[in-house]
């Protein structure tokens, strides 16, 4: 009898190790690009972000690892249904989610008003990966990028904090840019797993087949195809930068760190002429740390300059000269 793999190994808090400790170790062990952004956050926000990260990792594993564990599509979809039920419990008064990570996610939802729609969109994106993945056009790929990356950004900015509504647009565009960069890095491994995220119309235009991708055939046609995709990713980064809310520069430092590290990854991929079949291209740890420090220091300088400008304006009084109006009555 064939035993169906169990997809929900609930993390235990053994030996005093919490679920959040497990999430923190995951980011360090995988040398996640997100880890360097987490470091800049105060503890309550960092713990909430670890909960979101752990949720994303676990639901993503349903698609990425399910087949390796011997699970069929029915078991994977059933697991995603259980996660949907746990997300619903995160928002239901008096309800307690079943999964330990979902319980930590519930605490984050309550503390930072993480939107339910964004969490469900992430699950929708994972479900899109359960079947053979192909997209005819870049426009058809858009909803997938929103669900697996833009929606994650919408969760994160609630934890970071913001005052300008444009921060939501910034988060979605930045998430798209990050996902397009991931697609470039992982194109060979994805193709071997039956997932081709490069638009089929682009494959035809540049004369590259899905078999070429799966077999790792490096050619000038492939380089031109990848350069075309890299240009699209650069446009997504530019769209995010155009919507960056300057008033929230300090609170959005973690997002800026993530964006700059992933942009550095894009530059690394381009500099190596898209030799992504030979190795998994990464950004050196030293460069990641330098990016994080520069972003953090830059935000502090901008905040200090903004405070100084505000003080000078108040000291000069209202436009047109004259004394500032008296506070209070008469």
Give the distance, in angstroms, between the N- and C-terminal Cα atoms.
88 Å
- Which topology of the largest domain does CATH recognise? Farnesyl Diphosphate Synthase
Gyration radius, rounded: 22 Å
CATH architecture of the largest domain: Orthogonal Bundle
Chain-averaged pLDDT: 85
How would you characterize the overall build of this protein?
It is built from 14 helices and 2 strands, in the order H-H-H-H-H-H-E-H-H-H-E-H-H-H-H-H. The chain has helices at 19-29, 35-38, 43-64, 73-91, 100-112, 116-128, 138-160, 166-185, 187-192, 200-206, 210-215, 220-242, 253-271, 285-316; strands at 133-134, 195-196. The chain is globular and about 55 Å long. The protein has a two-stranded parallel sheet. It folds into 2 domains: 17-116, Orthogonal Bundle (Farnesyl Diphosphate Synthase), CATH 1.10.600.10; 132-308, Orthogonal Bundle (Farnesyl Diphosphate Synthase), CATH 1.10.600. It starts with 18 loop residues before the first helix and ends in a 14-residue tail after the last helix. It is mainly α. Helices cover 66% and strands 1% of the residues. 38% of the residues are buried.
């Amino acid at each position: 009898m064939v035993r169906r793999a169990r997809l929900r190994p609930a993390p235990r808090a053994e030996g005093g190790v919490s679920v959040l400790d497990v999430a923190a170790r995951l980011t360090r062990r995988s040398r996640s690009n997100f880890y360097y952004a987490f470091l800049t956050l105060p503890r309550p926000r960092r713990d909430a972000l670890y909960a979101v990260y752990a949720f994303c990792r676990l639901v993503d594993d349903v698609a990425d690892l399910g087949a390796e564990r011997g699970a069929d599509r029915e078991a994977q979809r059933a697991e995603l249904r259980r996660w949907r039920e746990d997300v619903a419990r995160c928002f239901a008064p008096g309800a307690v989610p079943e999964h330990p990570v979902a319980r930590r996610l519930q605490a984050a939802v309550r503390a930072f008003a993480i939107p339910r729609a964004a969490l469900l969109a992430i699950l929708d994106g994972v479900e899109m990966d359960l079947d053979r993945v192909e997209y005819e056009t870049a426009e058809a790929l858009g909803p997938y990028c929103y669900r697996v990356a833009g929606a994650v950004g919408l969760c994160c900015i609630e934890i970071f904090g913001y005052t300008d509504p444009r921060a939501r647009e910034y988060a979605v565009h930045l998430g798209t840019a990050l996902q397009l960069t991931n697609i470039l890095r992982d194109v060979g491994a994805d193709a071997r797993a039956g997932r081709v995220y490069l638009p089929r119309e682009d494959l035809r235009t540049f004369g590259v087949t899905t078999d070429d991708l799966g077999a790792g055939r490096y050619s000038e046609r492939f380089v031109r195809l990848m350069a075309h995709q890299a240009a699209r990713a650069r446009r997504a980064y530019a769209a995010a930068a155009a919507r960056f809310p300057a008033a929230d520069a300090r609170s959005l430092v973690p997002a800026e760190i993530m964006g700059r590290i992933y942009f550095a990854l894009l530059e690394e991929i381009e500099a190596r002429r898209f030799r992504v079949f030979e190795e998994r291209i990464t950004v050196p740890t030293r460069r990641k740390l330098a990016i994080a420090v520069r972003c953090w220091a830059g935000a502090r300088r901008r905040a200090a300059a903004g405070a100084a400008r505000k003080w000078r304006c108040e000291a000069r009084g209202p436009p047109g000269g004259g004394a500032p109006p008296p506070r209070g009555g008469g």
